[in-house]
């Protein structure tokens, strides 16, 4: 029995897949689309945690250590740890998933903002920008595993086509929608809003809880402009959203902008907007 177990362990080591790490679950969806089953994907951010305040701990290192590739997303914890990763894991290729993206800046109300923090990194909610992310992912995979290059290229072409179709579908779904404004707790929908001529009105400003004066301003705007939907992500404080919803007569819709089922969640948000607007 012991010998058998020993053999099995050794065999499983022999057939172990290479590991690629990503920061957030939507990237897991994208890498899977291109890599198929050729790599095991390790997602650093646990479900229902806040991508901006996530604290990377040494317990997260073990899988990263085994990774050939790490696809970054410009998050706060990456800025703190990337240099350490580079130093400790010389064989880990660190890939900027958002290469060639033209970033939007957060609209911040105070003057003393740090430019580095003003960059809006939520590019993964726009299917057309995801084409660029996918191209970057495919390029890195092809370089790392040239034996699979053909498959990656095929998968990339198919995924690009799916993203084009999804874009057309969302445009079509939102065609008749007249009131194109929505309130969102965490302002992660700027690229999506820009793509589909919508307007997100954020509750949270520069990562901070709204003040009473902010809430009053938003309620006034929501009433004047007849805004009917408030997006809230799981794990976020709902109280402010509930107060808002009651005051404006709007509906709270739970949308997870970090969902692993990326395409389904995007369509779910489109459906919510269509119904509410
Ligand atoms: Zn965010």
From TrEMBL:
Signal peptide (from-to): 1-16
Coiled coil: 149-180
InterPro entries referenced in this protein's UniProt entry, alphabetically: Bact_metal-bind_prot9, ZnuA-like
One example GO MF annotation: metal ion binding
Highest taxon of the lineage: Bacteria
UniProt keyword list: Coiled coil, Signal, Transport
Gene Ontology terms: biological process: metal ion transport
Family: Belongs to the bacterial solute-binding protein 9 family.
Protein name: Cation ABC transporter substrate-binding protein
Organism: Campylobacter vulpis
């Amino acid at each position: 029995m012991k010998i058998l177990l020993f053999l099995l362990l050794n065999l499983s080591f022999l057939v172990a897949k290479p590991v690629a790490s990503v920061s957030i679950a939507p990237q897991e969806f994208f890498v899977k689309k291109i890599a198929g089953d050729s790599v095991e994907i390790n997602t650093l951010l646990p479900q229902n945690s806040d991508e901006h305040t996530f604290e990377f701990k040494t317990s997260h290192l073990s899988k990263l250590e085994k990774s050939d590739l790490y696809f970054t997303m410009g998050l706060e914890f990456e800025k703190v740890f990337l240099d350490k990763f580079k130093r400790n894991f010389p064989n880990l290729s660190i890939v900027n998933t958002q290469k060639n993206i033209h970033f939007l800046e957060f609209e911040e109300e105070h003057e003393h903002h740090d430019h580095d923090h003003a960059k809006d990194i939520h590019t993964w909610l726009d299917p057309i920008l995801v084409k660029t992310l996918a191209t970057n992912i495919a390029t890195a995979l092809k370089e790392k595993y040239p034996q699979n290059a053909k498959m990656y290229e095929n998968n990339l072409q198919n995924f690009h086509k799916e993203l084009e179709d999804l874009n057309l579908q969302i445009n079509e779904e939102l065609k008749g929608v007249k009131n194109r404004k929505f309130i969102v707790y965490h302002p992660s929908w700027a690229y999506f809003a820009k793509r589909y001529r919508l307007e997100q009105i954020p509750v949270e400003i520069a990562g901070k809880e709204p003040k009473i004066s902010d809430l009053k301003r938003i309620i006034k705007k929501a009433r004047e402009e007849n805004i009917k939907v408030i997006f809230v992500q799981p794990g976020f404080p709902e109280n402010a959203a509930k107060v808002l919803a009651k005051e404006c007569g709007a509906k709270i819709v739970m949308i997870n902008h970090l969902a692993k089922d990326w395409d389904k969640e995007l369509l779910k948000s489109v459906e919510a907007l269509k119904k509410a607007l």
